[in-house]
Amino acid sequence: MTHNSLIYQLWLNSLVLLCFLQSNAVKRDIVFLLDGSDNTRDGFQEIKLFVKSIVESLSVSESQDRVSVVQFADKTEVNFDLNSHKAKNDTLNAIDNLRHKGGRRLNVGAALQFVRHSVFTSSTGSRRLEGVPQILILLTSKPSTDSVRGPAFALKEHEIVSVGIGVGNANLSELEMIAFKPGFTYKVTDFSMLRSIQSQLGATLNMNKDTEETLNGISDLRDIVFLLDGSDESRNGLPAIREFIRRTAEELDIEEDKVRVAVVQYSDDPKIYFNLKTHRSKKAIIYAVRSLRHKGGRPRNTGAALQFVQDHVFTASSGSRRLEGVPQILFLLTGGKSSDDVSGAALSLKQIGVLSFAIGMKNAKQEELQKIAFSSRFVFNLPVFGELLSIQPEIAAFVKAEIQTEPPTVVGKKDIVFLLDGSDVTRSDFPAMKNFVKRVVDALNVGENKDHVSVVQYSRDPQTDFSLNTYTEKQDVVAAVQQLNHKGGSLLNTGAALDYVRNNAFAESSGSRYQEGVPQILILLSGGRSQDDVASAAAALKRDKVVPFCVGTRNADILEQQMIAHNPSYAFSVMRFDNVGSIYPQLVSLVKRVPRQQPRLKAQNVSAVQAESIQRDIVFLLDSSDEMQNDFRAMLGFVERMVEKLNVDEDKDRVSVVQYSREPNVEFSLNTFQTKQKDDVLDAVRGLRHKGGYPHNIGAALQYVRDYIFTSDSGSRLHEGVPQILILLSGGRSEDDIRTPVRMLKEMGVISIAIGTTDADTLELQTISHEPNYAFSINDYEELPTAKQDLPAENHIAFVSTSFVFVADSKKQDVVFLIDGSYDSRNGFEEIRGFIGKIVESLNLDENRDRVAVVQYNRDATANFYLNSYSSKNDVLNSIGTMRHKFGRPLNIGKALDFVRDSVFAASVGGRRAESVPQYLYLFSGGRSGDDVRGPAQSLKENGIKTFSIGTKNADTLEMQTISFTPAHYFHVTNFNNLQSIHPSVEATLRGVKETTEFPTVIDVLYINIKSADIVFLLDGSNDMRASERQILDFVREIVKQIEIGPSKVQVALTQYSTEPTTDFLLNTYSQKDDVLSHLSNVNLKGGTSLNTGVALDYVKNSVFSASSGSRAQQGVPQILILLSGRKSGDDVSGAVDRLRNAGIILYSIGLNNADRLEIEQLAHSPQAKYFIKEISDFPLVREQLLSTITSHKDTVTPGVDKVAVVQYSNNAELSFNLNTYNTRDDVLKHVASLQPKGGRPQNIGAALQFVKDKVLVSNAGGRRHEGAKQILVMLAGGRSRDSPRGPARMLKAAGVVTFAIGSRMANSAEMQVISSDPNYAYSVPDFVNLSRIQQSLMSQLTQMGVEEETKEGKNLDYLKNY
After folding, report:
1. What span, in angstroms and rounded, lies between the C-alpha atoms of 219 and 216?
2. Which residues of 772-801 are buried (b: 16+ CB within 10 A; e: fewer)?
3. What is the radius of gyration, based on Cα positions, of the chain?
4. Can you list the alpha helix ranges (DSSP code H) found in 65-187?
5. Domain-by-domain residue ranges, the chain?
6. Cα–Cα distance between 829 and 823 in angstroms, integer?
7. What is the model's pTM?
8. Main-chain dihedrals φ then ψ at residue 1217, nearest 5 degrees
9. pLDDT digits (tens, 9 = 90+) for 828-860
10. Is 1046 left (phi over 0), alpha (psi -120 to 50) or beta?
11. How far apart are alpha carbons 1212 and 719 in whole angstroms?
């Protein structure tokens, strides 16, 4: 050995030793989560001394113990992060300087969730991913005001060790729930006693290595296989290999239910030394490895060995738990190049999810190792066997680290039938189709006992080119595909072709192996829409367990493709078959993941005899978010008992189960189990695993079950008149909007029953349920087993089970009116009294029914009467009639909201929240609040109080929307004299009818204030609309009546269309309203059999919205198109819609009769610009909503008009006001002048940029990118970002957003360059006081942009401020 190599070896050994010592040094990440509520103000000094005494006992440094301190009350605030201080003295000084946070409420659950998401993270210094123990020390002085169950469980799931310390009135059972394990809780009577537990807590923290392993919780499960080169060439390497395995095994938690290990040697052939279930202890493994003998032999067939471990070791019979989701890890140790090909076997291992490490020594080839390894990071190429030990620590660290695995896949035999569109339409595409089939076949493992392939072509009728049992060799299949001739034919009968392949191609006589459980897969390539029905044929395929994939060109009907496909994600769309390569990898991956099926017999045709018993399709929608982990078994128990009571059979009751959290996941569909297979359903329910995830998106889940479960393809019998029943089990409030999916489910006749815990929102449950009394509230899902009372059973629901402790009674309501008693409302007070009186008239007032209270406010709030003051309607009305205006200023809405929460909705004065009675607050405001409303408004929502706000033109829109339960619960009136116009909507809200799901912004009914617009009505005049002709024309006439017609005001045009469009009158035809109405009274629908909406849209753009026809687009007048359509267009509409948007024309789409929902949504300018009319009574409501939207629509691009939004950010981003909040410069400046700093740390600029892209520069928030408006972001930063802004900045640039970045001296200049769209758009100032220095330059660039755009589209400016 040379001198240099000796030095290198010594250095390497020293480095390994140093790494070993460092890895074994005590390291902990410790977070103190301190009660900062008003309750701890007097004891805060004692708390600080206690924390300091604990820190004194730690070894604080960057490489050892790290410390963070967080305070919480109603909100959570980081005092310093784990990486803020690197020395003990700095940490102690920071603790000395802590200031008490303050706050009335104590939201422990929210605080636990906060530290998990925002403190125990890599960006803030956590080393959890390095295996460093994560410790949370919680100190609290009273019970939590929110639920701790879910967040506490999530901490344990993330292996964060929580220690609970309670002082005074702290809830010990709550602390025990939070604590990592029993014994990790401490309770003292007062703050001075904290020092008495110091030594106990110190002993808990100062643990040896064994204890740390205990803290880290249950060891991760692993199945590990060592595949060793036993050829003659590697004989000298055996000692190093044995030591490598021994050391790795020493560090693993080897037990039957934890880590399992196998060893295989190979040369010309492989040999199992011991498999995964041979040894059940670490000691046995190490002993077996020590006695390992070299196999010997030549040549070295690594490819065959890889295939062997897949077929014989990574199998359940050998002890593999791959199908249970346990990570499968392979370590290949080889001394040279393989004598056979490794590519196929290596790819096959990757496809079943095995994480392969390729460790080469001596003569191993790098390219071969890279083929074998799961990732390039898993390749090691060492010069000699002896260096194996140098990489052992890194290998062991990986094995012990958290491994994310995909769901297990099953690879084996498959029967695959290609069904090719052979009609005339695909003649030119046929070579591309054949090439695609050949590519897919190339990726398969074709063989006699492996994959079988068949090809069928079809047009009017189908024909088999070759069957599943025709060829057993891949080259023969490929050659047969190459020789295919295009079939030809004018018609495309996809339904008949699907029936043909089910009965013939997937028949046993054609080579199908369905009786052996071999997956049956259909790949359909289609170039057009079917001329026959596909629904029944597709459903029959799925009943026979055939898994269809669909690939369609732009001429194919995507909805038809999704109907045929196994699920919608198995339907692919390409422009032409030349582009099919773009979806090839995804399709092949999905095909290979189709699991093996249970051996079965073909489903027999079931006779259509009506069953004697009740028929029902029942879907259980289960909350499986992180918070519901502990309740999940109880939920399954409930489902199980329900199923026990059902008569499960194809012609009787059908059952489906779907789990949801962030997104839904179907466990089984309504047609999965049939023919009296109740036991199969019960087994499936018992075998369900908790999905997990965050947050609760109930709206998305409801939309999913509507679109994909209550469908014929999934077994729904809706069109046969079978009742459709949805049972929702929820553990929390939805994070997304539920209103539209709820309405759509009700429209299709689904009966929804909603069951929620106390953390669920009662009003939300009632909104979801078919009727409010179908909503049930329980304390805990553990109560479900005791349930005995049946749910409502009239007509649709003749089943089930359960009674609950608290049942929300829809016949009871607590209603509080909070009235502006300041000078702002004095002129409208009589109207407010009359409005409230009218609402009260409609209520059922009684001590055990509805209760009412009235409160007035200005500087402070005063109750006129409470909820329990009166028990008769006459007494309430008399009191309202004699009520006097309070008078005074200022207007403190925040204070008033707190007052009604604490003093009016209270049980002592008649509030019935504890009985789950719905509680409503109606706020009337004639001006802007003089105090902060955000905290009180949030508190009302947390208490389940549903707030509706009614504001005049002097009220602040954003403030009203903030107070309201959702922004849609805000009603605007010009002044209180117009209150009566909103009475029907408010009354409907209280009665729980349809208007509760979608509240129109209120308008002045007598006259609509549209100053100037060009409005074109485009009516579907086809024969299908004749039955609705009178209602359609009345709809147009009523809109015209409510707008002011004139050359300088609103102009109107009318066009009809079917096959071709026809203009009834143009924008400049009439200048008087009477003339327009006179013409409309003589209009009849034109008739016609076909409907070409795309042609009609292009026609109105080019011939009606033109200057010669009266369009005033060049003068900046808004261009509005109102389309009424009754069915899906016969031509393509997408191009025409884009052309309208590019021209700045705002399109409102209204669907009637058989209109296609997706097309109506595609046509609409924005999600809020689409409407559906299902029955005659909907016309007035849609008209009101449409006029309201047009009147208040702030998204319409007015040429030369700029829009402004402001966002503040620190650790998260917060919207101050949106692009569509204000229409005038004065309003914007007024709001900017009143802005208060958001506060918070650290600065996450990346997250803020992402927020702006996703939430601000979007159409539903006022963004006008699709209308050509320039998108501009001005970002101000006072320091360096804690997260990376690179990705979000790149995405903003890709979206065409022009970003200016302004940084103070503490900001990172390189970061500013990355964020800005151009280096010239990055500015630097010493501090923000000096912003005026760059103002002129910035304004010059903004002005120049406006000139370049000729100021015709306007600009969207978003200001992102760091506070």
Report:
1. 8
2. bbbbbbbeebebbeebeeebeeeebbebbb
3. 35
4. 88-96, 108-118, 149-157, 172-178
5. 25-215, 222-400, 414-429+451-578, 616-807, 813-997, 1013-1192, 1203-1362
6. 10
7. 0.28
8. -160, 155
9. 888 888 888 888 887 888 767 889 999 999 888
10. left
11. 48
